[in-house]
Design goal:
Rossmann fold, 7 strands, 26% strand
Length: 191
């Protein structure tokens, strides 16, 4: 769908809106997070996940590379930080990190030149953003902290689990939903 057509239909073209993947992650986070926790909604997009977690009584920091997404998160009443993944944050500050990454496998020759495309493109394997996240999420987690990571079967579920385990995490599925074109799973990652 072209940008002009999407705009005429009233569809958001600057910020990834809540969809099935966001709803699944939000439901899992609400079931997992305790009131009073400090939670990072990494790659917040519309702020849907962070907003749901905040309603649970957690302090939520929303982050995104996209300035429009940070604005949407602030509109939901969330604190928002513009930054690349986990780079802006200090060591050991979050009880939980929730992340719905860009995971669609995309042709490396394709031109990705707007925010919506950045929100969707997971690179050739679908893991171009997931792997750097897994490389650094342990740094920002409190000693007993957890990460909740949405994973699509399109990205190679077992490969993501193995990658996480190789970085010292125990991975377990806490939510899952199947669709005709993919299965979405929420992994809980703990050390």
């Amino acid at each position: 769908m072209t940008r002009d057509l999407a705009e005429r239909r009233g569809l958001e073209t600057e910020v990834y809106g809540a969809a099935e993947d966001s709803a699944l992650l939000a439901d899992a986070a609400v079931e997992t997070v305790e009131p009073g926790w400090t939670v990072l909604d990494c790659g917040t997009g519309s702020g849907h996940v962070g907003g749901r977690v905040a309603e649970r009584g957690a302090r939520v920091i929303a982050s995104d590379l996209n300035p429009h997404a940070c604005e949407r998160a602030r509109d939901r009443g969330l604190e928002a930080v513009r930054g690349d993944l986990l780079a802006p944050f200090r060591r050991g500050v979050f009880d939980a990190v929730a992340f719905n990454p860009p995971y669609l496998p995309t042709d490396p020759e394709a031109e990705w030149d707007d925010w919506m495309e950045v929100a969707l493109s997971g690179g050739e394997s679908g893991r171009a953003v997931i792997e750097p996240f897994l490389d650094s999420v342990g740094r920002v987690l409190a000693p007993e902290g957890i990460a909740l990571l949405l994973v699509s079967s399109l990205t190679g579920f077992e490969t993501v689990v193995e990658y996480a385990e190789n970085r010292g995490f125990e991975a377990g599925v806490v939510a899952e939903e199947s669709f005709p074109f993919e299965t979405l799973s929420v992994l809980e990652l703990a050390r």
